[in-house]
Amino acid sequence: MKPALHAIDTALSLPSYTPTSNECALFEHAFRHRLPVLLKGPTGCGKTRFVAHMAARLGLPLHTVACHDDLTAADLTGRYLLKGGDTVWTDGPLTRAVREGGICYLDEVVEARKDVTVVLHPLTDDRRILPLERTGEELIAPDGFMLVVSYNPGYQSLHKALKPSTRQRFIAIEFGFLPAEQEIAVVAAESGLSPERVRPLVALAHRFRALQGHDLEEGVSTRLLVYCATLIAAGTPVADAVLAAMIEPLTDDADVKAGLREVAHAVIG
Ligand SMILES: Nc1ncnc2c1ncn2[C@@H]1O[C@H](COP(=O)(O)OP(=O)(O)OP(=O)(O)O)[C@@H](O)[C@H]1O
Ligand SMILES: [Mg+2]
């Protein structure tokens, strides 16, 4: 069994995040009123950064779990482990977040096994309880506990979709890419490349994003733009950086790649 990848961060500085709409206020209200939050949007559009930013802003520890298709309820809640001849109960990341307070962030929650919903349901309605069958405990989530989940609707297959009874336990916020001027500012700030040099990269990203659903499964993410600008800031020639960070990660199809290179040549030169 693959272990649950998780990390606990207590940010000392505020991770920078540029809002697209009212998401910061919504998130804060949700936290104050003990409502769980679901974030949806394409890869690399800022969901994880947003959660890190809000956790730091609200002064909450952040327990992040990257969900995968082997992730079970026990990976989240905990299990008895053998330690020096004894079996000792060891809390999983969800249980730890419920005991200690803070945000538990389940990234790509649709990937997790179906039994995960069994532990999420009582925790995400007004009971806010986490029953631990194995230890016989029933934990009541403190006010400082918040559950946040995210997924990318673009990758959803029917058998992986969240059930309505799960979805309807969350406030949901949709994420998209930032408007051009703001995306230029973010990519420049993250990479150190000047806004004037970032501008054509963002223009190219817009052209590629328009191909989504036709030749491309998903368009260029803000993350890839940051990678591309970082390579250029480090001295990589623009055409090489664009190929490595904005074309190769998008497709393996030789014809599609050739088409993207043509577009890149027309936009960037
Ligand atoms: N609104 C934003 N403000 C600041 N930085 C942003 C924003 N959106 C994207 N970024 C940049 O893009 C990078 C990728 O964002 P992030 O990792 O949050 O994406 P994600 O939506 O969680 O993607 P995935 O679904 O693949 O996990 C960030 O590390 C950051 O550099
Ligand atoms: Mg993420």
Structure description:
- By secondary structure, the chain is α/β, with parallel strands linked by helices.
- The protein has two domains: 5-174, Rossmann fold (3-Layer(aba) Sandwich), CATH 3.40.50.300; 180-268.
- The chain has eleven helices and ten strands.
- The longest helix has 15 residues, at 195-209.
- The mean pLDDT is 91.
- It binds adenosine-5'-triphosphate and magnesium ion (MG).
- Residues 47-48, 107 line the site of magnesium ion.
- Adenosine-5'-triphosphate binds next to helix 2, helix 7 and helix 9.
- It comes from Bradyrhizobium oligotrophicum S58.
- This is Putative nitric-oxide reductase subunit D.
User: What order do the SSEs take from the amino end to the carboxyl end, as H and E?
Assistant: EHEHEHEEHEHEEEHEHHHHH
At CATH level 3, the topology of the largest domain is Rossmann fold
Q: Give the second-level CATH assignment, the architecture of the largest domain.
A: 3-Layer(aba) Sandwich
Strand order of the largest sheet: 1-3-6-9-2-10
Approximate shape: elongated
Q: Rg to the nearest angstrom?
A: 21 Å
Q: Give the count of structural domains.
A: 2
- Cofactors, ions, other ligands: adenosine-5'-triphosphate, magnesium ion
Distance between the termini: 49 Å
Largest sheet: 6 strands, mixed
Number of extended strands: 10
> How much β-strand is present in the residues?
15-25%
Computed structural class: alpha/beta
Ranges where pLDDT stays below 50 over 5 or more residues in a row are: none
Domain ATPase dynein-related AAA: 36-170
InterPro entries: ATPase_dyneun-rel_AAA (IPR011704), CbbQ/NirQ/NorQ/GpvN (IPR050764), CbbQ_C (IPR013615), P-loop_NTPase (IPR027417)
Organism: Bradyrhizobium oligotrophicum S58
Pfam families: AAA_5, CbbQ_C
